[in-house]
Each structure stands twice: as C-alpha cells, then as structure tokens.
Amino acid sequence: MVLKRLGKITEERYDLKLEPVELRWSTNGGLQKVFLSNPTNVRRAIKVKCSDNHLYRVNPVYSFIEPGQVLSVDVARQNGGAKVDKMIFVTAKANKGDQNPRTLFTEGASKPMMVLPLIAT
C-alpha cells in the first residue's frame, strides 16, 4: 500500500498495513471489516474519511493504533446504487501522552494516507 501526502508519494516510510486492499459490495449493502496493522514501534493516530458519508458508516472514525496492534474497523454500507467510492485512512504520529486522536488532525496539515476502494456492483 502506497501512502500519499497531498497527491505526492511521501519519502517518509510508514509500514502500516491495510487488509483487504479493496471492499466489494452488492447494492443491498452490508457490514464488512477492515484490519489496519502497525508492525512498527511508533504509536499512530488514525482518522477515517469517506467519499460518501450518506452511504457508508465507519467505526471507529478516530483511533490510536499502538505498536504491534491490529485495529479492526467496521464499515457499513446502506442500500444504494452501484458505484465506486473510496475510504481514506489518514495517519499521524502520536506520543504516549496523547489522549484524543481527533486533536492530532488539524485542518490544512499534510498527513500520510492510505486509500481503500469501495466497489458496489
């Protein structure tokens, strides 16, 4: 998975892994899980964004992922037409003292991200 920063590939190497690499849906929707793993020794904060917030729900939206941890993210799709969307996992380095992951994501700040295609047929 390639991480991007504002459309450019970052020179910084982040070893977070996202599985699966895409989600496929029927138009009836449903619930699926995405697993984000952190095999590094650096604590990260995660923010999940989506191209269609009316059709998709995600939980958790903000979270910390500790070194060696695997974070399970629920993705629910409502009943809707066939189309392609995307879910974006934005990451930020977090310190041990950080309590609220939301505070690490300020508007306008450039952060590495991973894109997960959401394909409904």
From TrEMBL:
Alphabetic keyword roster: Cytoplasm, Cytoskeleton
Domain MSP, residue spans: 15-121
Domain of life (superkingdom): Eukaryota
Pfam families xref list: Motile_Sperm
Function: Central component in molecular interactions underlying sperm crawling. Forms an extensive filament system that extends from sperm villipoda, along the leading edge of the pseudopod.
Protein name: Major sperm protein
UniProt organism field: Gongylonema pulchrum
